[in-house]
Write a structure and sequence with these properties.
Blueprint: H1 2-16, H2 23-34, H3 39-44, H4 55-85, H5 107-121, E1 125-126, E2 132-134, H6 135-138, E3 165-167, H7 172-179, E4 186-195, E5 207-217, H8 222-237, E6 243-250, E7 253-262, E8 279-288, H9 290-295, E9 304-311, H10 312-320, H11 333-336
Parallel strand pairs: 1-4
Antiparallel strand pairs: 2-3, 4-5, 5-9, 6-7, 7-8, 8-9
């Protein structure tokens, strides 16, 4: 028994004198004292040599030694972990912090927000509608009855299960929904994504974004339309941009026109975007056709109105002088990072 006590005291002194400075030394300590063939396991085996009348006292002594060893190991473990986290080679507190990468708004979103802001200052409110639309709202109510040749102007994505349903080809369908409410006077803009079955190129895509506008009240004239669009162009592109109107045809407006501005990419000298003409068409417009008003239950003899529509991609191309429309939907980070400061 005395020999067992002396051996335990010797092991304690050896442990207290042990220097553990890293995880490798800590693991070596554990194996030596607490491993399956360690000293604690070995000395516990000495119980078989202790006389029967001393086994109780010896058992308590050995248990206390085992607890002492485990506690000592935990203290060493915490010391090593603390040293690792404060190691000057791992963290240099004199260095600047890691910068966070800045995100950026998409250029389409930037221009969309600016267009909406300009028309809101003129009293227009924003109206939205579904992207999956029925034939009535997308075509028929807009003076495009079935088999009308003008339907071929817009190659349409139809829902195969039901040919009366389709992906909207313009946000004019939202105008129809708002006019059907008969809450006049009506002054709205309708931004949103539209879909057309077109060949993808630098100037066209099978999906794009539009903003359409509508104003219906008593005594609305074409002069009101022109002044509204003049204001928009000056606010969007600056005072020096040139504007011209050309007669055109749209089934849902009469008279109809297209509005061009001087090309901002080539300053009117001619480039691929303006087809070497120095002019770029940015929107179509006109006075709302009386049949469209009647289809929505509005008295066309009492009320008149104007409508216009533009592609946001076209406006964005001119604003940032981007020559390929496909860049807006390819999600190339190198392209999008140019707009970080726009946040």
């Amino acid at each position: 028994m005395n020999q067992l006590v002396a051996q335990i005291e010797q092991y304690k002194k050896e442990m207290e004198a042990t220097q553990v400075s890293n995880k490798e030394a800590l693991e070596a300590f554990r194996i030596k004292y607490l491993g399956t063939k360690g000293l604690v396991k070995s000395i516990m085996g000495e119980m078989k040599n202790v006389p029967a009348d001393q086994k109780k006292e010896a058992g308590q002594l050995l248990n206390e030694f085992k607890i002492f060893t485990e506690t000592f190991f935990e203290t060493l473990s915490q010391s090593v972990e603390t040293d690792d986290t404060t190691n000057s080679d791992t963290i240099d507190t004199s260095l600047p912090g890691q910068p966070f990468a800045l995100g950026s708004r998409h250029p389409i979103s930037i221009v969309h927000n600016k267009i909406v802001s300009i028309f809101q200052r003129l009293g227009f409110s924003v109206a939205e509608g579904p992207e999956i639309e029925d034939d009535w709202h997308n075509f028929t109510a807009l003076n495009l009855p079935e088999n009308h040749p003008a339907r071929d102007m817009q190659d349409t994505f139809y829902i195969s299960q039901n040919p009366d349903w389709l992906l909207r080809t313009h946000t004019s369908s939202v105008q129809i929904r708002e006019m059907a409410k008969k809450e006049l006077p009506l002054r709205i803009i309708c931004p949103g994504r539209v879909y057309r079955n077109e060949t993808i190129s630098a100037r066209a895509h099978c999906f794009f974004n539009q903003v359409e506008g509508l104003y219906i009240a008593e005594n609305v004239s074409f002069a009101d339309l022109k002044q509204t669009l003049y204001f928009f162009v000056k606010e969007m592109f600056g005072e020096n941009v040139k504007v011209r109107f050309r007669p055109s045809y749209f089934p849902f407006t009469e008279p109809s026109a297209e509005m061009d501005i001087s090309c901002l990419i080539c300053s009117g000298e001619g480039c691929s975007v303006c087809k070497r003409t120095g002019w770029v068409e940015i929107l179509g417009c006109g006075m709302v056709h009386p049949s469209v008003l009647d289809n929505c239950g509005i008295d066309s003899k009492k009320y008149t109105g104007f409508a216009f529509g533009m592609g946001i991609e076209r406006i964005t191309m001119l604003t940032y002088q981007v020559k390929d429309l496909r860049l807006f939907s390819e999600n190339d980070v190198r392209f999008l990072q140019q707009f970080t400061q726009a946040l």
